[in-house]
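task queued by scheduler; priority normal; single chain, no ligands, no partner chains; default sampling; output format set to structure tokens
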Amino acid sequence: MTPRMLPSLATFTDLYELTMAQAYWQEGMAETATFSFFFRSLPPHRGYLVAAGIEPLLAELDGFHFTEEDIAALRQLRRFHEDFLSYLAGVRFTGSVRAVAEGTVVFANEPLLEVTAPILQAQLVETLVVNRLHVYTLLASKAARVRWAAGPQRQVVDFGARRCHGLEAADIAAYSGWLVGFEGTSNVHAGLRYGIPLYGTMAHSFVTAFPHELDAFRAYARTFPDSTTLLVDTYDTVAGIKHALRIAGELQQQGHQLRGIRLDSGDLASLSRIARQLADAAGFPHLQIFASGGIDEYTIEQLVAQRAPIDAFGVGTKYGVSQDAPYGDCAYKLVSYAGRATLKLSEHKQTLPGSKQVYRFYDPTGQMLYDQIALAEEPPPLGGQPLLHEVIHEGRRVHPPVSLDASRQYFRQQWASLPEPCKDLHNPVPYDVQLSVRLHQLTKQLSEQLRAELHPPDHMPAG
């Protein structure tokens, strides 16, 4: 096909969403449907997920429509009826959305978001919903593990932009890290886009561009005399540390202060101890030791356990691609249509029917006790706090967008209430998620009904 101008976000959908949409249109199926987005299970070694991407998604649903250029391009595919394309040109998202707040801690089978709209509209946004909520939630959950491993005394900075899976994924990694408590990002685009503090040191190329390491260090320190962190492992790390301390002394004589050094390879625990000893002996106890290079939550956990004197971590590739859990088993499934609850019975993929609400229960100290997934129509259980709230009503936002900083503060509250055993990096204690009696009964009733229809009992002939 000949490349065309960039299509609108409405076309970010799988082809079968459009073919199903035409079939709905042709059959006159325009009743209200509810689709639920959830994770069937938690990724390995995860005791929770951090719901993210909801706020960006809501902004995209707000402007959902097919442009004239989109319709012209779809016409050239020669798959769609002309009257359907004319109808599609007028489609806007007029439905309602209920969702948990950005930064909410969630668990398997709990809906993060439910879309209620004419079935054609709700179907068309499926790919966008899954794509957005999947990658944001996956990275926010990974980031929360990294942040927790580092502890409250050490900084964590996102360094993952260059090896993330695309430009948008790099910005999402920076966004997700900031949401759960990272101190900043090296990604300038994301920093400017979201108002995230920017951090950076120097590359090995800068050092090797000069005849000698000291020449490179002096040049950089002259340019940034009060904000320099020197990368010390280009040739020999211990020699590099000593060169950095020499620069620190020169800056001090000029009334300035070297901010820190960065270790990017080798035995980080041992090298950080050497760096701390040399810096303290030289009279620079303030000198920050920054570590990077293949770091993730497991590396950080080990370094903290070894009491390595590292003040800050830069997490890159393994965070930016969520290396140990690069995908989550999530789904966007029809749970009701035209007032009729629906479910699927696929092996290992059975769904819960009906529009739902999640209620969270806390102990007297504010710690999370258990969650209950219930039908949305049920009376609220005593003491349970609902997690899903209407955020779009008949196509319009109910409230102004929530800022990323506000979501960051909300996540802190969520994190503080999550029991510590659920945060373990290796064998987290499963959090208790229950089904209400009515939801359990409805699931059982519909399952039995569908199985009976599929496998009617054999009738013996009369004797």
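post-processing summary
- The radius of gyration is 27 Å.
- The chain is about 40% helix and 15% strand.
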